[in-house]
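Can anyone check this?
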Amino acid sequence: MFVYLAAVVGIGAAFAGKQKTTVDFFLAGRKMPWLAVGMSIFASITSAITYMGVPGLVYAENISFYVGMLMMPVAAPFIIFLFLPFYQRLEVTTSYEYILRRFGRSARYAVSGLFLLTRLGWLGTVIYAPALALSVVTGMNVWTTILLMGALGTLYTALGGLAAVIWTDVVQFFVLVGGAVWVAATLILRTPGGVSSIYEISLETGHLNLLDWRPSLTEMTVSVVAISYFIQFMQDYGVDQVTVQRLVATKSLREMRRATVINALFTVVITGILGFIGLGLFAYNHYLPGLIPESLGRDEIFPYYVVHALPAGASGLVITGVFAAAMSSVDSGINSLSTVVVNDFVRPLRGSRAVDDAHDVWLARILTVVFGAFATGVAFFASTIGDIIKTSQGFIGLFSGPVLALFLLGILTRWATFSGWLIGTAVALPATMAIQT
């Protein structure tokens, strides 16, 4: 694990000082290969929240969330044909430059501000998740591990910009996928009866719940999952700066499309493996009772199994996968936050005053450190809440919905106005908060 942590910091150091312009720092010179970008997008969005939370969710409830993952290939054509042509044609640095062209400067400030609020809250939870895993493994205080994760993720991102972020994400992609495959294989081997027993007990106990299509505002039924994930994928991969920044770092619209398609494939396959791990853990505990303590929270079950059931070395690989999933999200989030602040706030408010590009690169590095520190502080708040997935979705759902709405209004209609959107948002935000509470 420490070899891995040293390696990703080393990648950041290798790119340090090579960014002379903001295009270099924010977009890696628009020269990134599409496959690396596709891996980076998956690693960034599929954080430790998913890596640890999905097995625990399936263990405690059912597999119906996977219908949501199948919505990614459904959403991909909409993303490719609705959003990407605008970004390529306008040669944007942030997705919110489209909003500037369509609705004006005030609208751009509004959606950029909502992005900052969304991702700052999300960053806190993705730092907390691996910190919890490390705490379970080592017995260290969870607050100490939060500081460790926040500091390391911030360090190499500030050093190397987007190029370092994407290439470390590629390394992290292989580590997190390798760890998940290893755990799935051990569950097949250790559970009496293997795959057939896992399937039988999952079916018998309702964990393979794919038939409940009734709508519900309080239960995770299949129809609710399908609709909500389709909307979330449109937001995450179509308009959110964390994803868009990687896509526009490729060389052409064709490569942007390829990166989107390969990410959809990764989403279906790899989250399917994580869901299977949840079913396997339930079957493992059913056939071999007492090996997983009943007192564990759902987000602690996966790391507990890794530490106590896997041999030394193998457990280190999987825990490293948890770190990889987290750090790929931390680096992407704080890099995108600094990009939005410089590009969508600082430069417009500066007006016509000329400033050297190197100054903005320096400013972006400073902001990366500031956002990393702030996100670490939010992680302390997340540590008092409990359920990782629901905590994360609460932060994201509150602010991301109105942003997607403004993009769709701008692309699909001619009559929509920013003032009309403000009225809708003024209703949506308190309504969402009321539902969450």
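Reply from J.R.: I decoded it. The chain has 18 helices and no strands.
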